[in-house]
Design a protein that fits this description.
Layout lengths: L1 H8 L41 E2 L9 E2 L2 E2 L1 E4 L9 E8 L5 E9 L3 E4 L6 H11 L12 E4 L5 E2 L2 E2 L5 E6 L2 E6 L13 E2 L9 E8 L2 E11 L9 E10 L2 E10 L5 E3 L2 E7 L9 E3 L2 E7 L7 E7 L13 E2 L5 E8 L6 E7 L4 E7 L6 E6 L5 E7 L18 E3 L4 E11 L2
Parallel strand pairs: 1-14
Antiparallel strand pairs: 2-3, 4-5, 5-6, 6-7, 8-19, 9-13, 10-11, 11-12, 14-15, 15-16, 16-17, 17-30, 18-29, 19-28, 20-23, 20-25, 21-22, 21-24, 24-27, 25-26, 26-30, 27-28
């Protein structure tokens, strides 16, 4: 208790209002971490980390061995909602821990579901496993070089699996498994969950600030072809919160890559029954069950099913469970936009995908939890799987020197 109180006393006054209590999604259908392996090699080699921060930046707390950074701004409008802060952990792959906004008449609202900063530090620094699986159980973790699940031939010790891409064997950590006896261990959610970030900096941009950093991922600890460098930017203004990841192949051979994030959007007024979700997509991937959540290779129309949420006004979440992948997306003015809204509480968040490489939207929404996870991602689930046949599963091939950019923008509105 004394340690915790000392920790809390160091939090900067400028830190945004934090959620009370703790938030541990131990019942998350997507995540069952493996036992710790003390012999496991680090996913990303440690680098020297340089900071060029202006005076007044919030740098009191460390997570993942690097200082947490919070960008803040004061709300000025009395009629329109505005973003007011974003808190990021460079020591955990630039994971976004918190986003706050001001809604006139309602005050400060937590846009993301997650613990307060002390709870996040405890989850990520004390309770996490060697792979970093708790990173995608709070806030919004970035998922590179693959989101979602990948199946393959399991090693004898059950710690890795091997899949194939264009005749090349790729061996990945088998870091996830379902709950049932029939569950199959698989790889999930990329290789930067514990990555350190170099060259972390804050710069002014029109109307706000931009936090940037570089992850020298290399071959992702020996798990991926070629070598990769990631530049991650997070931009805060009154109207928008933007997340941008630019991946470049800095090696000598071709590589596949896909990018996404894993944001838990809070339902801040606590009534899931009055929450509505709008997803502009014509198809959803059929899965074997909601334990493995492996695609069968079939993309089925949403017409006439619970998956049809194409109306701009959305469809009610009610007591429905989702852990599904939508595709055949509708692009409007070069954007594919999902909306989470509570019309009764006059609260809404838009999630706009701006990169044409985004081919799918994964949604995880258990009725027992007060959040909905919405993941704009390049790829379908199990993108190297033979079940897909000739279907383009969304993995981008980068030749040496080539780049790809994932870009998503959040907005606020009153429905």
């Amino acid at each position: 208790m004394k340690i915790l109180m000392h920790f809390l006393s160091m939090l900067p006054i400028a830190m945004p209002v934090l959620l009370a209590g703790s938030f541990a999604l131990m019942g998350h259908a997507q995540t069952v971490p493996p036992s710790k392996d003390p012999k496991a090699a680090p996913i990303i080699d440690d680098q020297v980390h340089h900071y060029t921060m202006p005076e007044g930046s919030n740098l009191a707390v460390e997570i993942g061995g690097q200082k947490v950074v919070t960008l803040t701004r004061a709300a000025v409008s009395t009629t329109k909602p505005e973003f007011t802060s974003v808190t990021v952990a460079p020591g955990r792959g630039m994971e976004i821990l918190q986003i706050t906004a001001n809604f006139p008449g309602k005050g400060s609202v937590n846009v993301l579901a997650g613990p307060d900063l002390a709870g996040a530090k405890q989850m990520l620094d004390e309770k996490d496993d060697d792979f970093g699986n708790l990173g995608y159980r709070l806030g919004s973790a970035f998922l590179v070089p693959y989101p979602n699940r990948i199946r393959g031939k399991l090693s004898a010790d059950g710690k890795t699996l091997t899949t194939e891409w264009q005749g090349h064997a790729i061996t990945l950590p088998a870091n996830n498994i379902g709950h049932l006896p029939t569950a199959e261990r698989h790889a999930m959610h990329g290789l930067i969950l514990k990555a350190k970030t170099d060259d972390v900096s804050i710069e002014k941009i029109p109307g706000g600030q931009e936090l940037a950093g570089v992850i020298h991922a290399g071959d992702f600890g020996g798990h991926w072809p070629s070598k990769t460098q990631l530049v991650i930017r997070i931009r805060l203004t009154a109207e928008t919160l933007e997340a941008i990841i630019e991946a470049q192949n800095v090696g000598n051979e071709d590589e596949p890559i896909a990018i996404a994030w894993h944001p838990y959007f809070n339902l801040p007024f606590g009534n899931r029954a009055q929450t509505r979700l709008s997803i502009p997509a014509d198809k959803v991937a059929e899965v074997d069950n909601y334990d493995n959540v492996f695609p069968t290779g079939k993309l089925v129309p949403v017409e006439g099913t619970k998956f049809d949420m194409r109306s701009v006004g959305g469809a009610p979440l009610g007591d429905l469970f989702f852990d599904d992948n939508w595709s055949s997306l509708h692009w409007d003015k070069k954007e594919v936009t999902v909306r989470v809204m509570d019309p009764v509480a006059h609260y809404g968040v838009s999630i706009e995908g701006l990169s044409p490489e985004i081919k799918a939207i994964q949604v995880y929404a258990p009725p027992t939890q007060n959040f909905v996870a919405i993941e704009h991602q390049y790829n379908l689930g199990d993108p190297f799987g033979k079940e897909w046949g000739s279907t383009d599963t969304g993995m981008v091939t980068l030749k040496p020197g080539q780049r790809t950019k994932w870009h998503v923008r959040l907005g606020l509105f009153v429905p």
